[in-house]
C-alpha cells in the first residue's frame, strides 16, 4: 500500500465524515488493513493531516498570465484558493491546522518573487499575500461551518427575520455573508488597501472572478 493511496483514501473519508469523524481506525477499515499498517507510513494522525493538506493545496498556480498585472493575479489567486479549500469538506479546517511543509514554502517564495518583480518590496508582497490568504481561509472556515450547521438542521432564518430586519434587508440587497459576491467585495477592499500601500506597483482594474 503506497503512501499516496492512504492520503487519497483519507480525503475521501474526510468528505464523508468531516474532520471530527476522521480517525485512523476508520481509515484503516476503509483500506482493509489493521491500524499498525497506517503507522508504517505516518508517525501519527497529525502527520497524516499535514500530508492531506499538502495534497489538497496541490501545485501553485504559477505567475501572472500575459498582460495580467498584480491585482488581476492576486484576485485570481484568491478565488483559486477559495475553490481549493471548498473542494473537500472541512478543507479550511484541515489546512488551518496543518504544517504546510517545504513545497508550500517554496511556492510562497515564488509568489513573493513574482510580486517583487511587479514592483512590490519584499515586505509589501509578504503582507499582501498574507492578508489575502488569511482573509480567504477565514471566509471559507465560516462558509463551511455554516454549511455544517445547515446540514444539521440549525436554520436561524425565521428568528433573524423577526428580530433583525435590518440584517435581513442587507442580505437581500447584497447577498448572504458567505456568498460569492460577499467574498469578492471583501477581496476588493483588501486589494484597494494593498494598492494604497504599494503605490510603486502598477495595477489594473479589479476583477471579481478568475
TrEMBL record:
Membrane-crossing segments per the record: none
Keywords: DNA-binding, Repressor, Transcription, Transcription regulation
Record flagged with keyword DNA-binding: yes
Domain HTH tetR-type, residue spans: 1-60
UniProt-recorded Gene Ontology molecular function terms: DNA-binding transcription factor activity; transcription cis-regulatory region binding
DNA-binding region: 23-42
Gene Ontology terms: biological process: negative regulation of DNA-templated transcription; response to antibiotic
Cross-referenced Pfam families: TetR_C_1, TetR_N
Name of the molecule in the record: TetR family transcriptional regulator
Species this protein is from: Nonomuraea aridisoli
Lineage, top ranks: Bacteria, Bacillati, Actinomycetota, Actinomycetes, Streptosporangiales
